[in-house]
Specification:
The complex is a heterodimer of chains A (302) and B (228). Chain A is α+β, with helices and mostly antiparallel strands. Helix content of chain A is 72%, strand content 8%. The chains are: A alpha+beta (302), B alpha/beta (228). Bound molecules: adenosine-5'-diphosphate and magnesium ion (MG).
Amino acid sequence: MNSGVITVMKPRTFRRHFRESFKNLRRNGWMTFAAVSAVTVTLLLTGIFLVIMLNLNKIGTDIEKDVEVRVHVKLDLTEADKEQLRAQIENLPEVENVEYSSKEQELQNIIKDMGSDFTLFEQSNPLYDVFIVKTARPQDTPDAARKIEQFAQTETAIYGEEKVENLFSFMKTARNVGIVLVAGLLFTAMFLISNTIKITIFARRKEIEIMKLVGATNWFIRWPFLLEGLWIGLLGSIIPVTAVAVGYYYAEQALSAKLAAHFVEFIGYIPLVVPVTVLMLAIAVFIGIWGSFISVRRFLNV
Amino acid sequence: MIDMQGVTKKYPNGVTALSGVDVTIKQGEFVYIVGPSGAGKSTFIKLIYREEKPTGGTVMVGGMNTATLKQRSIPALRRKVGVVFQDFKLLPLLNVYENVAFALEVIEEEPAVIRKRVMEVLDLVGLKHKARMLPTELSGGEQQRIAIARSIVNNPKVVIADEPTGNLDPDTSWDIMRLFETINKRGTTIVMATHNKDIVNKIRRRVIAIENGRIVRDEQRGDYGYEA
Ligand SMILES: Nc1ncnc2c1ncn2[C@@H]1O[C@H](COP(=O)(O)OP(=O)(O)O)[C@@H](O)[C@H]1O
Ligand SMILES: [Mg+2]
């Protein structure tokens, strides 16, 4: 019998660890409360952050899909020149669809969007006649715009580049700030959990000493503390998971009607809430067990 | 049962607590470890249950070499060795029965076996009738009996004790010694570090005297040999 004492956990042993871990939670109630609160704040912010970022990403992709090239036609062109330009554009391999919008129509669109103040431009319309060009694939839009810009009849060819790129660069910044914030919070939560476990280990040092003395295995000694960390993580996830599930239900209903007018949509309830919940729970489990493990390794000496 | 060859123990702070120790203790022996304070008795005891590792030589206990024993194999060694201390080391919130049962529960013994074994050893140490009492409700001698019951509840081959009567009055000490004799008669090896001159001189057994970390005397049926 020279090997270690190897054990497959019996149901009875598992129940014991379960009981002990809950006893520990109750025993240092205030530390438990502090650690659970830290996990709650962390996950709440993580959840909100995820919901916003995932939706911004979706909206960005929607807009990107919708990008079009607006070709401003030079001012002094004849109808024949315009027809020739249209033919040239339509001949480009990337292009799927070309529509014409005269400067009068363009002005009416602006008046409709922005209000009747703009009617005074009816005297002297400063706008261009426009070809609105859609490519078959959104990523071909910049290429098509560059080619159209070469044509003699083209004043400028602009596409929704800036709109989309601004959104994506905003998201990049927001994501970095969010990651730093969440990482800091995760660290704090983990520190509080490991501190709670440290206190538990200290409170139970006599029991641990005797367990070691009579030959309890290292895992037998570790389990209740790892479970205690796990419970702290899961208790801390209750409010955030509920908040995301309920909050997103109402947010989606309230906002999606407004957004629909702009041809963008929020991510559906289930496709968003399920993965975000799973991720939050995974984080809860991870920081709970890992936070506990730090103290178990440092203070249990097993 | 226990075999030490050329054992040296140097603590990290540079103190050499044992050097050149050669001892063989056979199954069923009763051995006193005597010597002045700081001689290395407790270190000798700690090497047996692998609380400390020797820095030189080999310590074989029940066929296991504690010098090379892997961390995860320590529990297997501890299950063969019962340990008793001067300060009892009982859990104050558990009653007598629970304190003894604890030693079997944490090594995942079957509940039926636990009940049977705990009642047997409580009967042996004469505390069956106080099974539901808390340690704090008992005298020092009774508390040490619980600790002894706990040390033998898993049927170890050897019980080692570091000054088990150090906190007890003379009458109580004799009771505890009689209990160790009873356990020894059942075939269990006993290794006991002690300062108790009267006991060593009266209950004559093998005496190993340690001074400055070296064995200076090893006699069958020896005496204490120091002024108390
Ligand atoms: N953990 C330790 N670290 C450093 N030195 C120790 C330690 N334990 C004991 N010692 C030293 O080793 C020597 C022997 O101690 P010990 O074995 O406790 O002697 P005894 O039990 O015979 O009084 C003493 O000098 C003591 O100070
Ligand atoms: Mg000592």
